[in-house]
Structures are given as C-alpha cells and as structure tokens.
Amino acid sequence: MRRASKTLLGALAVLLLALGLAACGGGSDESTGSTSGEAAKEQSERSPSGSGSAKSEANGGGGKESEPEGPSGKGEAAKFKSKQHSDSGGGAQQFVQKGGDNSVQEFGTEAEPQEFDAAATALHDFLDARAEGNWAAACEYMAKSVVESFEKLAAQAKQIEDKSCAGVLEKLVNPAAKAAMKLEAEKANVGSLRVEGDRSFIIYRGIRGTVLSMPMASEDGQWKVASLSGTPLN
What we know:
Elements: H1 2-18, H2 37-46, E1 65-66, H3 76-79, E2 85-86, E3 109-110, H4 113-131, H5 135-140, H6 144-154, H7 165-172, H8 178-187, E4 189-196, E5 199-205, E6 211-219, E7 222-225, E8 231-232
Antiparallel strand pairs: 1-2, 3-4, 4-5, 5-6, 6-7, 6-8
Helix pairs in contact: 4-8
C-alpha cells in the first residue's frame, strides 16, 4: 500500500509538470531551456474549450490597465482582492520569431479588446493568487478539467489528507518557487489573446522579458486558465 501511495504521489507530480507547473515557478528566469510553440499548441488540445467569439482581427487588445474585477459567485476567488495591472497589448505580431516556431503567435485571430481585457484580468488574478499561496482562489481561477484531473488522482493518494484542489497544490508546489511566482505575477504583461474556435492562448511577457503562452478556457461566461503555468515561447 505504501508503494502504491508513492506511485500516486509520483503520478500527481508528473501531472503537475505536464500541465506546466515547474518546480522553479514556470516561466521565470530560473527555468532551464525553452518550450516551442508547437508544444504549447498540443497543450491546448488537452485543455477545455476556450471562447470562440473573437473572429475579426483587432488591434491586439486593450493595451490598458486590467480592471480588478473578481469572478462572480461565492468562494475564495470571489473574496480574493484583485490587483491592478497594466498590459501593453499590441497583438501577436510583436512576438513572431524569424525562422522560429510561431504556431502560437499565428494561432487563430486576435481577440476583440473587450475579450482581451477579460482574459488578461483572469490571468493576472490567477498569477496573483498563486503568488500569495492562496490555493483555494487559484483553483477557482483554473478550468474545471484541470482541477478535476489531479483531484481524481489525489483521491487515491492516502498521504494527502486534503483531497481538494487547494490541498493538492499546497502539498505539491515547491516552496522554493514562491519568490519566482511572486515576481512573475508582478512582471506579467499581456500582449495578445489568440482565438480559434474552442481554443485560445494568451501571450504575455514574464520575468526578464521571457515570452510565455497560457491556454485559456471560457466557462459559464468567465475566463479560466487552462494550465498551471505559462509555456515559454522564446
């Protein structure tokens, strides 16, 4: 039984890494190597559906401060005090790499400004909650399919007493990543939201100008992050 519990814990850790949460705080300057846009595209295929309402080319988003509008309803996310962030917008063209893999940068079309602002706010709220270690709020900003995937594994791991999403994250996230996650939350600058059908990506700059993508999902009219960390594109 002990061996089985260790196996389940290992499976949870692998799942967290597969979803994008590196031990060093995904997307920070402590990360080693980079992940191609094609890998990020594959990640979106595993994620839940995103909004498909943006069909026309826009100016790359609002390029303004994200209003701290918490999600409606009850729970930790509704009580979480959102911070105000400034996003430059500008569209995905600024992130295109000559001769590189631009599958995310060229994915779908640019979202309309209103949709851009809503998705950017959702991303910032998630990163802020994650940085503060408010796992309950962070889980509420995440897509249901992501939450359910590791809660199911946690239910079988006897070494994890709290089987909730928050309990799993608190148990498995490396405390050493706290500083990096806090810095990424402060530095995150959204430049683009790319949408095609039921899939979408936010492209943003993180620590030291690292360009990252985050798959997003639209659930009950609200944007949710569909991964635990951004995927580096450069």
